[in-house]
Amino acid sequence: MPDLVSIDASTFDLVHDLIGDLFGFSASEVVGLLAPPWSDPETSPGWILHEDDRAVGFLGAVTVDRHIDGEPFRFCNLTTWYVEPEHRGSSLAMMRPPLRLDGHVVTDFSPSVEAERISLRLGFQELETSTRLFEPETKQSSTLTVTPGHLGVLGALGPTERQIVSDHQWIPTCRWYVARDGDAACLIVASKSTIHRRPYLRIDHVSNPELFVEHADGIVATMQTTEGVSTVFAGNRFTWSRGATCARLLPDRTVALVANPGNLNPEQIDNLYSEVMLLDITTVPKSLPPTRAYQARQAVQIALWRMRQVKRAAGRLVTRRTE
């Protein structure tokens, strides 16, 4: 029976040997997952099932200390729970260490259907089960400026926001913007990826929900233009997502889980410092819905096609009468 062992630098290679080819992770991606810049070297980045000098199971843990609305919290963001089929009987043992962590908010932002079922039985709660799609329609306010991330705009942000930028800007898929309206500023952190060769943005963090809701159309439209995407998503758990008039709820089920949230509300638990950013994990619907702009173009094309059909039918009728 395999032993459950905490991961340290000496076992990084074993983790890569287990999940590298399986999930398409390079050695550098595995190191980035196990030892991101904000990590505490005294804190284990997860656990492996160890047998005969190799790993037969892995559960990653991205741990970070954060301040949410002025209060300190320690997060343990779980990632990539995998056990080889012949050792699945030991799978549940891997969930015991994170659930026994004292004073940790434990999250899983990308559970499989089976992992979700097991985790709910172990005491996890649903953090959210749905997603919203942004479809901006109005022009940007004359008082709003939205600047793509560069160091020159950091002065508009507070120390917490500047630390977030510093911790995430090295991630290849990370994008960040600063929106300003007068003296008010808002940091927006997003991830850019593709699904079925269609690019999209997922908004992971908004520092000023009130400013974002007021100017969601202009902010999202700027992000779409800058990144060359038409599709922008966000989780439905966030007030700034639910409050934006240009965001509509999608029917697809997209799940995030949490255990031991303490006094945190779901909207206070964002995607920062987690595997969905570190590993470019897709948490949006597998089949992207058509945007309103696409639907409008389709409606025009259908209308033109019908007009052509009517003209052809009228032409045939005229020909018959002349005969």
Q: What percent of the residues sit in helical stretches (DSSP H or I)?
A: 25-40%
What is the number of beta strands? Answer: 14
Q: Roughly what is the average pLDDT, rounded to an integer?
A: 88
Given as residue ranges, the uncertain stretches (5+ residues, pLDDT < 50) are none
CA-atom Rg in angstroms: 24 Å
Category from helices, strands and their pairing: alpha+beta
Instruction: Write out the strand line-up for the largest beta sheet, numbering strands in chain order.
Output: 1-2-3-4-5-14-6
Largest sheet: 7 strands, mixed
Q: With helices defined by DSSP (H or I, 4 residues minimum), what is the helix count?
A: 10
Order of helices and strands: EHHEEEHEHEEEHEEEHHEHEEHH
- Range of strand content: 25-35%
Amino-to-carboxy terminus distance: 90 Å
What is the overall silhouette? Answer: globular
Task: Provide a descriptive summary of the structure in words.
The chain is an alpha+beta fold. It has helices at residues 12-23, 27-34, 96-99, 113-121, 159-168, 209-214, 216-227, 239-242, 275-278, 292-322; strands at residues 3-6, 46-51, 54-68, 71-83, 104-108, 125-128, 131-134, 144-148, 174-181, 184-195, 198-206, 231-235, 247-249, 256-259. Strand 9 and strand 10 (184-195) form a beta hairpin. It starts with a strand and ends with a helix.
